[in-house]
Design goal:
Blueprint: H1 2-22, E1 41-46, E2 51-55, H2 58-85, H3 89-92, H4 97-105, H5 108-117, H6 121-140, H7 154-166, E3 186-191, E4 201-210, E5 217-224, E6 227-234, E7 242-244, E8 248-254, E9 260-264, H8 288-295, E10 298-304, E11 307-313, E12 317-318, E13 321-325, E14 331-336, H9 344-353, H10 357-364, E15 371-378, E16 383-389, E17 412-413, E18 432-434, E19 440-442, H11 473-482, H12 489-496, H13 502-517, H14 519-523, H15 528-537, H16 550-564, H17 571-579, H18 583-604, H19 611-614, E20 615-619, E21 622-625, E22 638-639, E23 648-649, E24 652-654, E25 657-662, E26 666-671, H20 689-693, E27 698-699, H21 704-709, E28 711-722, E29 727-745, E30 756-758, E31 762-767, E32 775-781, E33 796-801, E34 805-808, E35 811-815, E36 820-826, E37 830-836, H22 869-875, H23 929-936
Parallel strand pairs: 2-5, 9-17, 20-23
Antiparallel strand pairs: 1-2, 1-28, 3-4, 3-19, 4-24, 4-25, 5-6, 6-7, 7-8, 8-15, 9-14, 10-11, 12-13, 13-14, 15-16, 16-18, 20-21, 22-24, 25-26, 26-27, 28-29, 29-31, 29-32, 30-37, 32-36, 33-34, 33-37, 35-36
Helix pairs in contact: 1-6, 2-4, 2-6, 2-7, 5-7, 6-7, 9-10, 15-18, 16-18
Length: 940
């Protein structure tokens, strides 16, 4: 009976989905109008598969963006939606049951459904358009999707956003299951023009993620009307969460603000008696939430070997928020500053439409991003920082000292007034910085007063319930570098890949000093302890792949955390405890070092092991040695599970990174660790992995021309593609939505018409079936280097088909003022511009060089003077590197070695003296590194 009920529900959802996609009138998915979203939206893909959306409205932009995300990450995205709705276990089984129960308890689906009914127009357009885009992709590819895949409703999109924000809050109810925070760490910093070599503001962003988790960062470029927006978002979100537009940009990094509290509800009130009925007590007001909780239960389903098992959980939202049962049997209300707030998508759109600092700050007043540090930079050089938090004021005013300290990280008594929240702390009351004198701001898990040098913010002015962050080695490292000089975008790329371990610098110096001070412990130690300490003494304190000391250090620190985490509240507290250098600290540090040496001898029979031999990066069937570590608190982190032997696999690190330079037009570079798609059959499943392993980034394509010129494919009804190797475009109008690409023909077929030769590359449109009469229009510019201006009149478009050979195009003309050829036609033909062979410009003689046999061009296949594919490749050494004027990221594609000068100061003011770190010499072939090292050398 339970399974039959579930089947009826699934059939009902599928019916709603089909009606929504196919143009029905179901309420859950509005009917598709006769003019479909593809009439005003086109989806482009560049050479790395990054989606670029060009649309005429917010709704059609969201539609095409949903279609793109579904094509790259459908199953992950739909499972994330199911998690938010309490429906994941029906597909994934017992592993998702606790998560579903939690989503049911906080009534996420119910409050989101109610919010969707009252949503503002922007939020509605985003959610409805995005859901329709996903559903359209499913319908277009129904043979390729798993049987469990159902349609998406607009409410699902909003519910997922709400779930992301709510679960980002602290959870103070001990031993009760709750989902892991979606966002846990990020790097971000910004530089004013005064601190850059070219006098242009720079913005750097790098959010982190688990590589095998539902919350994945997704890079995209969205254009709607006059708004042009590039950056990244979490899968399933219909807008970008960070990035830049034409005028400004911003980054979000998670903070630890206490935006949530648990309140113990009154379970045993003093009940007054009804004098008319001595057998029944009256119900007092405080008891109503408890009874409501006990009377409500919502079902969810868990797949197991026998089918679908129905379970249920109480689900009640009271005046303070959703109610959960504690392990002590009591009931607790969760007061969460993010709960019931659904304006975040609209706020992100308003941020994207801002053109200056005032407009951006106005968008921040919406106060719908509950737990992020916001970092901003713009083209006129402004920097702005906001420690954003949506939480109640727990005192009558934010004062330097609370006379009656309350532990806000533990459940509170709902009946006591002093625990109640006052009004929500307004954005204007939160810590903020505008244009600091130091010329930089950083937000890397940073207390606001340490976001820049000599900040006007004072730590004592902010209570710890609002700002609990502490100083960290990573914060210190970033601040040390940014205050050391002036920088270029290439420097910022290198800094993102900085593998110097500042915490290890202190810990190694300390451990060596401890060993010297305790010969008694050394005499009784394992023989390999001295070997391990010698490795540490000679270590350059980076996490590069060839370092042979990091494996030992990593094992030692893992033992330190495992043995002493109960004694120290955090890793930072453990650092401080060791730096006190007490006798107890010396004993347990050296004992762990001794045990680490013994364990490594047992596991590997040696201590000197290259880090990359045991620290690996895997994507599908490919596995590579990986740099980076999760010990030492470096800027670049590549986290891995603690392993007692054998290899470990990187599972945490950058999910996306971008460097933006704000000039007259923004220029940017970016990286996604693996690729744009989770489909192993996609060419973009791991095509950025080599860039990532080489510590490089790729240029982005931000302008409309840059987008179309670098697009390898367009999808929609109205598509414009740049022509490979030529300044020009080809426009297509399709009868039905489809994919179109322009294929470069390496060797055009012979013979050419009498006396004619191609003056341009030859291209051929390729498209899906169903648009057999595909019309196209050409607009090609020919400069004087290919043909002298006086000879342009003698050039003609020619098309080729196997049946007719080369024929002049019937509809074509030349704009002699602009040196532009236009023409139109239809069908699958090869296209090129031809002219008399005697007009070809002869290349200047060059000094003869020896080339490998593979590079020799066969004279029969490529006659002298003809434009060949090899020549095009040679002319495009920087294939995706536009010129200064087109607004693209034209920086050279470089490998940046992140090795930097070791700091000479210590984070904590204790005099620990150790051997200086060895500096690894730069590799000459990695451009940009040498200048960066020189910049940081002797910076202190």
């Amino acid at each position: 009976m339970k399974i039959h009920t579930q089947m009826r529900r699934i059939v009902g959802v599928l019916l709603v989905f089909c009606l929504g996609v196919m143009g029905g009138t179901a309420v859950a998915q509005p009917a598709m109008p006769s003019a479909t979203p593809w009439d005003e939206a086109t989806l482009y893909r560049d050479g790395y598969g990054t989606p670029h959306v060009h649309a005429g409205s917010i709704r059609s932009m969201a539609f095409a963006f949903g279609y793109a995300q579904a094509g790259d990450h459908l199953e992950s995205m739909l499972m994330a939606y199911r998690m938010a709705l309490g429906r994941a276990a029906a597909v994934g089984g017992e592993a998702f049951a606790e998560g579903d129960a939690f989503a049911i308890k906080i009534a996420n689906a119910e409050v989101s459904r109610a919010a969707m009914a009252e949503a503002d127009g922007v939020t509605r357009d985003l959610c409805e358009g995005f859901a329709l885009g996903i559903n359209t992709w499913i319908f277009d590819h129904k043979a390729d999707v798993p049987t469990w895949v159902e349609g998406v409703q607009p409410m699902d999109v909003l519910a997922y956003w709400h779930f992301l924000m709510v679960t980002s809050a602290p959870f103070d109810l001990p031993d009760v299951y709750h989902p892991e925070r979606p966002l846990q760490r990020a790097n971000a910093w910004a530089l004013a023009p005064s601190n850059t070599v070219d006098g242009k503001a720079l913005l750097v962003m790098a959010p982190h993620q688990y590589y095998r988790a539902p919350y994945q960062w997704y890079e995209a470029h969205l254009m709607v009307g006059k708004m042009n927006w590039a950056g990244a978002t979490l899968l399933g979100v219909p807008v970008l969460m960070m990035g830049h537009n034409t005028h400004l940009g911003w980054a979000l990094t998670p903070n630890k603000a206490d935006i949530a509290d648990f309140y113990r509800e009154n379970m045993d009130p003093s009940l007054s008696h009804n004098p008319n009925d001595i057998s029944r007590p009256s119900i007092v007001k405080d008891m109503a939430p408890v009874l409501s909780f006990m009377a409500t239960a919502k079902p969810y389903y868990v797949r197991n070997a026998g089918g679908l098992e129905e379970r249920s959980e109480p689900s009640y939202v009271g005046s303070r928020g959703p109610m959960l049962a504690g392990t002590d049997g009591a009931l607790y209300s969760w007061r969460n500053g993010a709960f019931g707030q659904f304006g975040g998508l609209r706020q992100l759109m308003q941020m994207a439409y801002a053109t200056d600092l005032a407009g951006f700050q106005e968008a921040m007043l919406l106060h719908q991003l509950p737990c992020f540090q916001v970092l901003y930079a713009d083209q006129v050089g402004n920097l702005f920082y906001l420690y954003n938090a949506r939480t109640g004021n727990r005192t009558t005013a934010i004062t330097a000292e609370d006379r009656n300290p309350i532990n806000w990280s533990k459940p509170l008594d709902a009946s006591r007034e002093r625990f109640a929240w006052d009004a929500i702390v307004a954005p204007g009351q939160l810590p903020s910085i505008v244009n600091p004198k130091a010329g930089y701001i950083q937000a890397c898990g940073t207390p606001p007063w340490l976001a820049t040098t000599d900040s006007d913010l004072v730590a004592g002015d902010w209570p710890t319930w609002l700002v609990p962050e502490e100083e960290s080695y990573r914060v210190f490292r970033v601040r040390q570098i940014l205050s050391s000089g002036r920088f270029t975008p290439a420097d910022m790329e290198a800094m993102l890949y900085d593998t110097y371990l500042p915490a290890a610098a202190d810990m190694v110096s300390l451990l060596l000093a401890m060993a010297e001070a305790r010969p008694d412990l050394l005499r009784a130690a394992h023989p390999d302890l001295v070997t391990g300490l010698t490795l540490l003494q000679n270590w350059n304190l980076t996490s590069d792949r060839d370092n042979e000391a990091l494996v030992y250090y990593n094992r030692w620190w893992a033992l330190m955390i495992a043995r002493h985490q109960a004694d120290f509240a955090s890793e930072a507290a453990l650092y401080r405890g060791l730096l006190e250098n007490s006798g107890a600290a010396q004993s347990y540090a050296l004992e762990a070092a001794n045990d680490a040496a013994r364990a490594m001898r047992n596991d590997f029979n040696r201590l000197a092991i290259p880090w990359g031999e045991v620290h690996r990066l895997r994507r599908g069937g490919r596995e590579e040695a990986m740099f980076g570590a999760d010990t030492g608190d470096a800027i670049f982190l590549a986290g891995n599970p603690v392993s007692l032997g054998g290899r470990s696999q990187t599972n945490f690190g950058y999910g996306f990174a971008m460097v933006v330079e704000f000039g007259e037009r923004p220029r940017a570079s970016s990286i996604v660790p693996f690729g744009a798609s989770e489909n192993p059959a996609s060419p973009h499943y791991s095509d950025q992995m080599d860039l990532f392993l080489d510590r490089r980034m790729k240029p982005t394509h931000f302008s409309y021309d840059g987008m179309t010129q670098n697009a390898t494919q367009g999808y929609g009804r109205h598509i414009v593609l740049g022509t490979p190797g030529l300044d020009g475009s080809c426009s297509f109008t399709l009868q039905r939505p489809g994919a179109v690409s322009l294929e470069a023909v390496k060797y055009p077929p012979r013979p050419y018409p009498g006396g004619q030769e191609p003056f341009t590359p030859t291209v051929r449109p390729v498209w899906e079936q169903g648009n057999d009469d595909l019309p196209w229009e050409l607009e090609w510019y020919v400069d004087e280097s290919s043909c002298k201006t006086e000879n342009l009149m003698r050039l003609r478009f020619h098309t080729y088909t196997p049946e007719d050979g080369w024929k002049p195009l019937l509809r074509q003309r030349l704009d002699t003022d602009g040196e532009t050829f236009t023409g139109s036609g239809s069908g699958a033909v090869m296209i090129t511009l031809m002219g008399p062979s005697d007009m070809l410009e002869k290349p200047e003689p060059v000094e003869e060089t020896t080339t490998p046999d593979d590079d020799v061009v066969d004279e029969e296949e490529a006659p002298s003077g003809a434009f060949t594919w090899e020549q095009r490749e040679e002319s495009e050494v920087a294939e995706v590197m536009p010129e200064e004027g087109d607004g693209e990221a034209g920086q050279e594609d470089q490998a940046h070695e992140p090795q930097m000068e070791a700091p000479t100061r210590r984070l904590y003011d204790l005099e620990i003296v150790g051997a200086p770190a060895e500096e690894a010499p730069p590799e000459p072939k990695k451009k940009g590194l040498r200048g960066l090292l020189k910049k940081f050398r002797n910076s202190e």
